[in-house]
Amino acid sequence: MACTKLGSKSDAFQRQGQAWFCTTGLPSDIVVEVGEMSFHLHKFPLLSRSGVMERMIAEASKEGDEKCFIQISDLPGGNKTFELVAKFCYGVKLELTASNVVYLRCAAERLEMTEEYGESNLISQTETFLNHKVLKSWKDSIKALQSCDEVLEDADELNITKRCIESLSMKASTDPNLFGWPVVEHGGPMQSPGGSVLWNGISTGARPKHSSSDWWYEDASMLSFPIFKRVLETMESRCIRQDIIAGSLVYYARKYLPGIKRRRGGNESSGRFSTPFGSGNVLSEEEQKRLLEEIQELLPLEKGLAPTKFLFDSLRTAKILKASSSCISKLEKRIGIQLDQAALEDLVMPSFSDSTETLYDVDCVQRIFEHFLATDQITVGGAGDSPCSSVDDRQLIGSPQSLAPITTVAKLIDGFLAEVAPDVNLKLPKFRALAAAVPEYARLLDDGLYRAIDIYLKHHPWLAESERENLCRLIDCQKLSLEACTHAAQNERLPLRIIVQVLFFEQLQLRTSIAGCFLVSDNLDGGSRQLSGGIAGGSGEGGGWATAVRENQVLKVGMDNMRVRVSELEKEVSHAFCLKGEFGLKLKSHQMCSAQEGSVSKPNDNVKLEKLKDVKDRRGKQKKVPSLHTEG
Fold it and tell me: 471 and 518: one domain?
């Protein structure tokens, strides 16, 4: 760190308890009280350097006392700064550093230590040090800004804060690789104690070369958030990239907000630096909430600049800290913009509200998904085509020609439904609303939706038949895989109507597949006949053609066997339809008899029930297939 030593006399100041004494051999004739500390000094060295001290001494001397008493309140830097000022007035050695120069500059201005009261006075000395030493060094500018927090009003009046911020923003927005600095590791053996690069053992005064644009994140995070915010605003005025601004905010939040997960190997907040609100190294919940709300306001709106996991962590922290509804709503919207980049574990958020009985925050996920759908429509139709588009959406980035984002989100929502389905407190309307919110074109297969609905039916066995049918209507049986169809055909939790639909579409798929196989078989038959004619009229190459003919004949035999198997499957499906019809007629007849003869059971009712049970057993024995899903 840069430093300058002023004065030449040896240190003649001694401290005794809460008092400082100047041991020059002459008795002190003035006592200056600054805070809780008293300084026993002499009038002449003080009034010869400070206009304020000259006037105060003159007023105190009118009382006629041999020793005058002066009290100074609100001096920038307090008694520690006045100690340095007093030493400067006595010509004692004084070391200017980046950590004390701001206090001394502000105190010198308050005490009017101009050139009128002595050549090379404290104002000119501190200004020279600021301009020629501190502002030219990255590290020293950081330390000077840290010291501005306690004297911010005075530092702003003297433009010290602004000058340091502009110096930092200029250095941060400049690519260090352009200057050809020697490539060394930060803090390595090739650096001087002050942090500058050593080139052949000689300090160059240059900063180490950094390969990435985030080299300044850690240093800037040492600043209090109000000053850090002003640094970012100045950087934005210099047109620094938005991803760099967002990255610095993410780094700052991860450093000071315990609820937000830090990156593996990331730097933790150390005890050497003050936290954003000056209350030590642990922020209170109120300070954390304020900091989170401020950071959320500063984050750029573009998609993908802030990591999705960071946004989810911020949302959870905001709910725990009970942040403002505006903060939570904006975080949900930011997540919705880039929901296709999320993972299932991010969506499964516990419910932090006392008003809901569900284990997971399903309402929050639905709002996030609605934001995604609105953004997807805007990007497809254009921001100007939708009356719902707002100023916040004009910078969103999308891919109108690709269905990959919406299909990815559809799988994500189906997975989330399967995770929350075992919650017995999750009401059917809420579960169905989220499942129905996914557009039909977004699901290439309905296997995930079928799995979620099956889990929900298993953990909610009290649902009425009409409610089950209403929920299962969301499943498109034509978009189920063969494995899902096989499982659904034997699933006793599904309504009978859905099972029949599954069997019908399964048969239809088989017939379509077999028709395609028959077409291939006919083409092979025609090819074998042509090959046989070629062999009869060919020459000595007939052996190779004969082999091809035999392979085609073997394939034809396989196709014949497939025809037989398909015929058997058609008979089984037809038998199932017959059983359904028989079951429906008997049920209808039983209902008519009951209506005519009253509610008393007939003797043959038991026989009918036994027959119906036999029909169900025969259907169940046709084929048994293992379970399609496992519950997470």
Answer: no
**Is the CA virtual torsion 222, 224, 225, 231 positive or negative?**
negative
Helices (H), ranges, 173-224: 217-220
Q: Are residues 95 and 12 both part of a single domain? A: yes
Return the amino acid letter for 288: Q
Q: What are phi and psi of 364, to 5 degrees?
A: -65, -45
In a 13 Å sphere around the CA of 493, the CA atoms on its Cβ side amount to 19
Other Cβ atoms less than 10 A from the Cβ of 305: the count is 20
Picking from 30, 33, 51, the residue whose alpha carbon sits closest to that of residue 42 is 30
Q: Does the residue 200 lie in any domain? A: no
Residue 29 has a pLDDT of 85
**268 with 239, same domain?**
yes
Q: Is residue 328 domain-shared with residue 366, that is, in the same domain?
A: no
Closest C-alpha to 489, from 625, 580, 303, 589: 625
Domain-located, residue 193: no
Sequence-ordered list of residues with C-beta below 8 angstroms from that of 208, at least 6 positions apart, any chain: 181, 182, 184, 185, 186, 191, 197
Strand partners, 9: 92
- Residue 84 corresponds to which tokens in the numbers above? 């340095």
Query: Can you give the pLDDT at residue 393?
Result: 40
**pLDDT average per 10 residues of sequence, the chain (632 residues):** 59 78 81 90 90 90 77 91 92 89 95 91 94 93 94 94 94 64 41 47 49 85 94 91 93 92 46 43 87 93 91 94 93 94 93 80 94 75 41 40 85 95 93 94 90 92 90 86 82 80 72 63 54 46 55 63 68 65 58 51 47 51 44 40
522 and 447 together in one domain: no
The helix (run of H) or strand (run of E) holding residue 203 is strand 202-203
Q: 191 lies in a domain?
A: no
Structural domain including 87 reads: 3-172
Q: Rounded to two decimals, what is the model's pTM?
A: 0.71
- 68 forms beta bridges with 30
Total number of domains constituting the chain:
4
d(Cα 465, Cα 462) in Å, to the nearest integer?
9
| 3-class SS of residue 454 | helix
Q: What distance, in Å, lies between the first and last C-alpha atoms of the chain?
A: 57
φ and ψ at residue 609, rounded to 5 degrees: -65, -35
144 and 14 share one domain: yes
Q: Looking at residue 360, what DSSP letter applies? A: B
* Pair (126, 218) in one structural domain: no
Q: Tokens in use for 52?
A: 């304020």
